Amino acid sequence: MTVSYLKMEGIAKFFPGVQALKDVTFEAAKGEILGLIGANGAGKSTLMNILGGNLQPNAGRILIDGKEVCIDSPTAAANHGIAFVHQEMAMLPTMSITDTMYISSYPYKRGLIDYKKIHQNCRSVLKRLGCNFDPREKIRNISPGDQQMVEIGRALLHNPQIIIFDEPTSSLTLREKDHLFDVIRSLKNEGAVIIYISHFLDEVFNLCDRVMVLRNGETVGGGQLSDYTYNDIVKMMIGSKEIDTYYSRSEHSTGEEIMRVEGLSRTGIIHDISFSLNKGEVLGIWGQLGSGRTEVARALVGLDPIDSGMIFINIDGSMTPVKQSETKKYIGMITENRRKEGLLLPMSVKNNMSLANLPKLTKKSIPFVIDPKLENSQVEKFVSRMEIKISSPSQRVETLSGGNQQKVIIGRWLQKNPLIYIMDEPTRGLDVGAKADIRRIISELAEQGAGILVISSEIEEIMSISDRYIVMKRGGIVNEFGGKVTREELVAAATGALTEKE
Amino acid sequence: MNLHNSGISQLFSKQGASNTHELYLNWTRYLPYIVLIVVFIAVSFVVPYFLTVPNILSVLLQTSSLAVLAIGQAAVLILGGIDLSMPGVMALGAIFGAMYMESGGNSVIGGLVMILVPTTLGFINGVSISYFNMIPFVVTMAMQAITIGAATMITNQISIPVSQNFCDAILKKVIGIPLPIIIMLVVALCSQFVMTKTYFGRWLYSAGTSIPTSKVSGIPTKRVVLAAYTFAGMMGGVAAIIMTSRLYAASPQMGKDSVAMDIIASAAVGGVSTMGGVGTALNAVVGAIIITLISNVMNMANVSYYLTLVIKGLIIIAFVAIDANSRRKLSR
Question: Is the C-alpha dihedral spanning A492, A494, A497, A499 positive or negative?
Answer without folding.
Answer: positive
